[in-house]
Amino acid sequence: MAQETTQPAPRSAPTAPARALLPFILPAIVVGVVASLVFLGVSTAAERLQHVLWGLLPDALGVGRYSVLWMFVMLVATGVAVGLVVWKVPGHAGPDPATLGLDAPVLPPAVLPGLVLATGLMLAGGPSLGPENPIIAVNVTLAAWLGGRFLPRTPGTLWPALAEAATLGALFGTPVAAALVISEALAGQPTRGRLWDNLFAPLTAGACGAMTTTLVAHPTFDLGLPPMGHPRARDLLAALVVASAAALLGMCAVRAFPYVHAGFRRLRHPMLMIPAGGVLLGALAAVGGHLTLFKGLSEVGELARDPEGWSAGQFAVMAVVKLAALLVAASCGFRGGRIFPAVFVGAALGLCAHALVPAVHPSLGVATGVLGMLLAITRQGWVSLFTAAVLVTSPSILTLLCTASLPAWLLVTGRPQMQLREDGVPVR
């Protein structure tokens, strides 16, 4: 009779000794603080320019700040200005933004002035993109270049991870988002040691970036919506429906993305592509109104302050127009990211659901709408859950969000992302 052989249980990875992690603390702190200051500097400069372009200048000219004429003029002018930067400034403001995600490559340092200028002009001028992708690219390049120069013995792969985590911490005002993104990235890579050993340095950078932003700018993502009580069966049904509907709407934009991008690329020259995008954005602004301009974070706060202030049809129009504006701006060559505009689209869709069916709690509608839209646009599960959760102050909503993410993920997984390879083929 053959003897049974028992396989030994697999040994867990050993934890790293403290002396192996201590040398990474100082570089992580420096990267965290610098990354936050870069983000705050670009954002502050863009806000001041926005105040001039959308406040002082139209007032001096006697034109309505958000009249159809002024919105159209400003968006076309922004397209011309960014087109000139992409055309004439050394480095051409970096690679095609449609090919970039949160994991930015290390760029030549000469690219950074043009990329910062194009990003600032975009943020001030009104196109529907956020600062995340270009700011991450700037910080990754700065960290890799300066880190390799002053600390050449530090592993080169560490600097991009520190810069990405620091920028995400600065953007969201908390290192949790950075930890979630890095954890998701590490899941697809061979790593040595325990997860928290690998997260130690990026989490330190993310915490320092978040703390610097918090001390300087006092950011908040809470929309001030009424808190939700104990969930009921109808709330679960609403969460499933709204998140799935938002994911399907987002996938429509994702499916159209390579075709819209290819259409702009036929114009071949940035002074044709980006101003043409400005023309289309001006037309969309005339339909959707001024709340569909800019990255959308302040604008979604305005929606949330008065959930009953617009009809279901108006919310639906704003959601569709903002999604179309995001699609155009991301395709024609404006430098920017896609997370913050997607938050506006999801929030408007959730408030539309509340206006159609008052039994849908506004906090639940907004959170699940944002969840489904971000899953479709970013394909980042943890970031989508985190962002949806921090918009509302209802701990009871977390279970509903986790449940609603399951059918929404089934709708988006395995399908193209809103990001292209250099040959124009969608990333899966």
Low-pLDDT runs of 5+ residues are 1-6
Largest sheet: none
Shape type: globular
How many H/I helices?
16
Helix-strand topology string: HHHHHHHHHHHHHHHH
Strand content: under 5%
Estimated radius of gyration: 22 Å
Can you walk me through this structure?
With 428 residues, the chain is mostly helical. It is built from 16 helices and no strands. The longest helix has 37 residues.
Give a quick set of tags describing it.
16 helices; mainly alpha; about 425 residues
Q: What's the short version?
A:
By secondary structure, the protein is mainly α. The chain is 67% helix and 0% strand. The longest helix is centred in the first third of the chain and has 37 residues, at 25-61.
Q: Secondary-structure blueprint of this entry?
A:
Layout: H1 18-21, H2 25-61, H3 68-88, H4 112-125, H5 132-150, H6 158-172, H7 175-186, H8 195-217, H9 233-265, H10 270-288, H11 297-305, H12 312-332, H13 339-356, H14 362-378, H15 381-390, H16 397-412
Helix pairs in contact: 2-4, 2-5, 2-6, 2-8, 3-4, 3-10, 4-5, 5-6, 6-7, 6-8, 7-8, 7-15, 9-12, 9-14, 9-16, 10-12, 11-13, 12-13, 13-14, 14-15, 14-16, 15-16
